[in-house]
Design brief:
By secondary structure, the chain is of the alpha+beta class. Helix content is about 50%, strand content about 15%. A six-stranded mixed beta sheet has the order 1-2-3-4-5-6, with no helix packed on it. Strand 2 and strand 3 form a beta hairpin. It is elongated. It starts with a strand and ends with a helix.
Length: about 180
């Protein structure tokens, strides 16, 4: 792996492939680095100890994979937080990959069922597609409610653990 800097963009060479790694101005995390889209193979290499790597969106779930930093002086509580963040991200990834696959499959089935035999395939109007969207949402509302409650529960657990990690970092300075 070779690294080169050019105008604030870090270029990573892995074998014969090159990837641009850059900071995002819109990210709330100052230390996050983003891999540019176009990577076919997962890159699992941290460039520095102080950064999280955020990859291109998954083609099925549309979620960006995150490789979280692992500090050399990581405490048990920080490790627990990192593991919980990874587990929550994986849970979210699995839900949206399954949901989006089901959505696309049912959408294609709806489109195929509304084609007229013997004629060319046609695009359905927005009004025709709105029937599908309403039906899909009505059929899956319970799944979405359960997802939202689980998502909130997981996020409050993460917030509480993150608060404990910050208190742990702050306490040695006070004493």
């Amino acid at each position: 792996m070779t690294l080169s800097r050019n105008h604030g963009i870090l270029r990573v060479a892995l074998g014969k492939r090159f990837f641009n790694v850059h900071k995002s101005q819109s990210s709330p995390v100052e230390q996050a680095l983003f891999l540019e889209k176009g990577n076919q193979n997962q890159v699992i290499a941290l460039l520095q100890d102080e950064v999280d790597l955020i990859g291109p969106p998954d083609p099925v779930s549309n979620l960006r994979p995150v490789i979280r930093r692992r500090c050399a002086t990581e405490t048990k509580l920080q490790e627990q937080l990192r593991f919980m963040q990874d587990a929550t991200h994986q849970w979210n990834q699995n839900f949206w990959a399954t949901h989006n696959t089901k959505f696309l499959r049912e959408k294609q089935k709806f489109i195929d069922n509304h084609q007229i035999l013997g004629e060319e395939k046609r695009l359905l109007s927005a009004e025709e597609m709105s029937e599908f969207y309403k039906k899909f949402l009505d059929e899956h509302w319970k799944t979405h409610i359960e997802y939202n409650f689980s998502w909130y529960k997981k996020n409050f657990s993460l917030l509480f653990l993150a608060l404990r990690v910050n208190v742990e970092k702050f306490l040695p300075r006070v004493v």
